[in-house]
Amino acid sequence: MKFTDGYWRKRGGLTVLHPAHLQDSATAPDSLTVWAATRPIHHRGDTLNSALITVTCTAPAPDVIRVTVSHFQGERSRTPNFTINEASGDVSVDRLSLTSGALTVRFNDGDNWGLDFLADGRRLTGSGWKGMGVVSGPDGDYVHEQLDLGVGHVVYGLGERFGPLIKNGQTVDIWNEDGGTSSEQAYKNVPFYLTNGGYGVLVDHPGKVSFEVASEMVTRTQFSVAGQSLSYLVVYGPTPADIIRKYTALTGRPALPPAWSFGLWLTTSFTTDYDEETVNKFVGGMADRDLPLSVFHFDCFWMREFNWCDFEWDPRVFPDPPGMLKRLADRGLRTCLWINPYIAQRSPLFAEGAANGYLVKRANGDVFQWDLWQAGMALVDFTNPAAREWYAGKLRALADMGVDAFKSDFGERVPTDVVWHDGSDPERMHNYYTQLYNEVVFEVLRSARGEGEAVLFARSATVGGQQFPVHWGGDNSSTFESMAESLRGGLSLMSSGFGFWSHDIGGFEGMPDPAVFKRWVAFGLLSSHSRLHGSSSYRVPWLFDEESVDVLRHFTHLKYRLMPYIYGAAREAHLTGLPVMRPMPVAFPGDPAATYLDRQYMLGADLLVAPVFSAGGEVSYYVPEGRWTRYVPSTGNADVVEGPRWVREIHGFDSAPLLVRPGAVVPVGARRDRPDYDYRDGVTLRLFEPAEGRTAVVVPGPAGADTVFTVARSGSEIVVGRMGDALPWQVQLGDQVTTLTADQDSCTLTLG
C-alpha cells in the first residue's frame, strides 16, 4: 500500500505521523520501550496536542529482535496469531539499545530519530527519517515501517510468488487467493522476507500485510498493516541459510515425509472421465512399461458431482472402494484422495454441519453460502473444536478404509463478512484459515498412520504451513513459460521456510505439447516430490509419444537410485529447515552471479539442476566456482565443467544439466523400482573431485539404523570407511568401481 505522492508529499486525504523525537525510554531485563513524539520537543508547550508513538523491543530468540510499533493502545486483542516458538538467550538492555545474541537494535536520542540493527560490527538495516509512521485516512488507520536496503541488497521470499525471484520493485499484498500461477496473486502468502544483507524480516500479522519492496521508496522495504499497531521480527543470519534455520526454529520445522511419497504420483486428472477400470488401465499400463508408480491419486470426481465434500465414493463409478483400495495396495501402491474444506448444499453433511454449528456464519446467524466452486457451498469453521473433530472423523473413516494421503486443495477463498465460532477477526482469519485446515488433515494422517507416515498434497499456506508437507504449486498451464513461472514460485516459497514442494508435471490447464511434457518430466523428477496431473486431459506418457515413456522411465529410475541422497536432504530439511530444493542465492551467498538466478537450483547440497525450457534442448545456466562433474554423461557436452562461468548447451529429451559439486560424496541406491527401500543395502558412494581432509556421509537406514561413511583424502590416497550394519557396498571414483562385501568396512583408493 502506497501512502506517498512522490518523495515529498503524502497522498490526498491522509494524515501521517512519524516519530521525530525520542522523548523517553524504559528498560526491563528483557525489553526496551521508547516513546517518540511526532514533532521536536523543545519546551513543555510542545507536548500538548501531540501524538506519542510507543516502540517496544524484545528478544524472542537468540539473534532475533521483535519491534512493536503502537499508536493508540486501547485496541482489543484480536485473534488468530501466528505461533512463535520463543527461546531464551543472551539478552542485554540499556537506555537506547537491546542486544539478542549477535543482533542489536539501537535508537538515536533526541531529535535525530532513527533505529539501527547491527551485528558483528556492521549495520544491517534500520528505520530512519519518516520510515516509521501511523496513518489515518478515509479508508481507515494503518501503521507502516520502512527498513532501508543497502547498495546491492535484494529481497526474496514473501511466499510462493510466480513473478521475478527478486522482489525489489514489486508491490506484494499478503492475501491468499485462488489466482493460478500467472498472476501477482498467490496461494501461499508468507509475510517473511529474506535478504542478502544478513537478515530476514517476519511481519507478525496473519491478515493482510502490504509490502512495497524498493517500489514506493526505492531504497527501502516498506510493510504496513491496518490498525493501530505493527509487530515485526528481525532475524540475523548472517547467511541466507542461517536466516532460514532461525526463522523455521521460530515458526516450525517441516515434518519428515515418508520415503514412499518421494516416488512418482499419477492422478486421474480433474474433469476427465474415470472409474476403476480407468484406474486399472493406467496402473497396468505404467507397470507394463516399467514405469514404477508410488502413489495413485483420485481427484475431485471420486465423489459425486455437486456433493463436494460428502466424503462418499460415487457408487456409479466406484462400487467397491475398500476392495479397490486393497487391490491397489496389493500392487504396492499408496492412494491419495482429493478433499477441500467446503461443504456443498447438496452434500448430506451440509444439514448436519448447519444444525450443529460447524459451518461459518454471517453476522445475522445464517450459514455463509455462495455458488462459487460448488452450488450453495459453506465453509467448515475450524475454530470450533467440535467442527474440527467432525471433519476429522470423516477423514479417519477414509484412512481406516485404506487411504494413505489427502490432497488438501483450496482454503484460499475465505470471506471476511462472516463470524467465527471463537470470535476470530475475519481479516486475520482469511490467510490463517489454511493453517487450521491443513493441521486437522495432517493430524488425522499422523494419528492413523504413525509418526513419519503423514503427508499432504496441499495448495494453500501461510506462516507455519511448512510443518505440514507437501505443498504443490497450483494451477499452471501447459507451456514452457508456465513451467518457468512454476519454478520461480517454488524457489520463492523455499526462500520462505518451506522444505518440500511439487508441481503438476506437464502443466494443469491444456494438453501439453510432447516436448513440453518431456522437458517437464525431467524437472518434475528432479524436484522433491513428483506428480503427473492435468485438468481436462490425462497425463499418462503414452498419450504423448513413445519417447515420453522412455523419458519418464529414465528420470523415474534416476530419482529412485538417488533416494539415499534425496532422503538425506529431506532429513536435513526436517531438522534444520533448509529446503530440499535450494535457491542458488541461498546455496551460494558469496557469489554475486547467483543473486539473480531463478532458472536453476540446488537439489540438496551437492546437485545443481538446470531445467530445460525449450523444445530444441537449448539451455543456459551458471556454474559456480570449482570443477563440477556431470552426474550422467550427456552427448556433446563436457563431462567436467570448470566454474565460475555461464554454460550454453543442447540436451536431448533424456537429459538435463545435472552437475555435482566438487568434493561431494553422493550415495546412490541399488534399486530403481521404488523410492522406499533399505538405502544402505548395496549402496554406491560416488566420489567427485575428492577434497583434502575428511568428509562424512550418512546413509539413512530403517528405523534410524543409519550407516556413516567417511572419506579421507591425503595427497593421492583416499581411505573410505564404514560405521554401521554389515551390508555389501561399493565405491566409485570416475570409472573406477570398488565392490566390498558385507564384512569389509574400508577400502583405499589412489588418485591418478
From TrEMBL:
SUPFAM superfamilies: (Trans)glycosidases, Galactose mutarotase-like, Glycosyl hydrolase domain, Putative glucosidase YicI, C-terminal domain. CDD domains: GH31_N, GH31_xylosidase_YicI. Keywords: Glycosidase, Hydrolase. It comes from the Bacteria. Signal peptide: none annotated. GO terms for molecular function: alpha-D-xyloside xylohydrolase. Coiled coil: none annotated. Residues 55-212 form the Glycoside hydrolase family 31 N-terminal domain. Residues 577-666 form the Glycosyl hydrolase family 31 C-terminal domain. The keyword Hydrolase applies. Residues 254-568 form the Glycoside hydrolase family 31 TIM barrel domain. Its EC number is 3.2.1.177. It is an enzyme of class 3 (hydrolase). NCBIfam families: PRK10658.1. PANTHER family: GLYCOSIDASE FAMILY 31 (PTHR43053), MYOGENESIS-REGULATING GLYCOSIDASE (PTHR43053:SF4). Belongs to the glycosyl hydrolase 31 family. This is Alpha-xylosidase. It comes from Actinoplanes flavus. The gene is yicI.
